Structure to design on (157 residues):
């Protein structure tokens, strides 16, 4: 009976096999580097330069209040620039892939305390996730499937 009171609805909806893989770990356990994000009015030339310095392929784009608007796909942006379809002085907002916020696709908040099992489910059909504070005021990190795979390998799970 005591074990029933410890289960939460979120934990019980996750398949047992996945929870065994991560042994209760949360996003914070991934030890991700701090997020790198761009303001929406940054020039694409600077965005590409900064992305390649950091070896990032997607960069979050923030509005004036620093809330996530979407992201820039750096390889696609670089291709457009090299083909003459984008001016180096264009603003990243013009090339931002905006996050869809619709009732059919609700925004999923990923925080440092999100269980890795939930993160794995989220990443099943997405390239990456933004790790934010609960109120989505700050982008703390960017996480990918590769980060999960590296974690499992490092921990020997």
């Amino acid at each position: 009976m005591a074990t029933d009171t410890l289960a939460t609805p979120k934990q019980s909806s996750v398949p047992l096999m996945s929870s065994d893989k991560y042994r209760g770990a949360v996003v914070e356990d991934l030890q991700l580097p701090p997020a790198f994000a761009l303001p929406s009015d940054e020039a694409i030339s600077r965005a590409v330069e900064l992305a390649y310095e950091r070896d990032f392929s997607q960069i979050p784009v923030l509005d004036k209040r620093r809330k996530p608007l979407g992201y820039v796909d750096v390889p696609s942006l670089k291709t457009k620039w090299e083909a003459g379809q984008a001016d180096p002085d264009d603003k990243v907002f013009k090339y931002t892939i905006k996050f869809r916020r619709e009732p059919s696709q609700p925004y999923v908040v990923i925080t440092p305390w999100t269980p890795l099992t939930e993160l794995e489910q989220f990443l099943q059909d997405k390239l990456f996730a933004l790790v934010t504070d609960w109120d989505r005021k700050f982008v703390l990190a960017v996480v990918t499937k590769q980060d999960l795979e590296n974690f499992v390998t490092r921990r020997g799970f």
